[in-house]
Amino acid sequence: MIRVLLVDDQALIRAGFRALLAAEDDITVIGDAADGATGVSLARQHRPDVVLLDVQMPVMDGIEATRQIASDPALADVHVVILTNYGFDEYVFNALRAGASGFLVKDTEPEDLLTAVRVAARGDALLSPAITRRLISEFVTRTPQPGPVVGLDDLTNREKEVMALVAKGLTNDEIAARMVISPTTAKTHVSRAMTKLGARDRAQLVVFAYESGLVRVS
Description:
By secondary structure, the chain is an alpha/beta fold. The protein has helices at 11-22, 36-46, 62-70, 90-98, 110-121, 129-140, 157-167, 172-179, 183-197, 202-212; strands spanning 2-7, 27-33, 50-54, 79-84, 102-105. The chain folds into two domains: 2-126, Rossmann fold (3-Layer(aba) Sandwich), CATH 3.40.50; 140-212, Arc Repressor Mutant, subunit A (Orthogonal Bundle), CATH 1.10.10.10. The radius of gyration is 17 Å and the shape is globular. It starts with a strand and ends in a 6-residue tail after the last helix. Keywords: DNA-binding, Phosphoprotein, Transcription, Transcription regulation.
């Protein structure tokens, strides 16, 4: 059973999402909150599989709430999905940097919301690598100056090569074909790069690739 926590300051949004999720046999809503601080507290108390988290809220916004969840070792298995009214913007980018697994626009189709919850619960990045790369590229073009990323120097050349291919939108199977290695080996390289950089998932690995200048927007 996938356990979901809803955090949004709009009661109508919470009620609508709760009704939709509760109708599924494999999903249960374990709680909801109207601000980020309460959301973090509930996440620590219940340790849900997925937190659907609004960006702009009172008391504590979604970016800080994401950062606190992502930085808590006890919540390593909790996956944050950011909710936004506006699509990809600076708030969402900062949330991805803070450790979110991806994002959803609030008026997304019901089946897309359900799919997103299931994908996030598996520990996969919510967005496909290609979509993640395109969206992050659009933001990075506004702030193109690379900076240091802690742990990048610890990566082997092979791991850096794999990280660059992830940032370019390739799946593990595509990376394996490009590098003439097995998909399992490709997955291992991705996992090791994520561990060394402290990235929670592929979405954050893409962010680090652009921030460090390992990959540049063409």
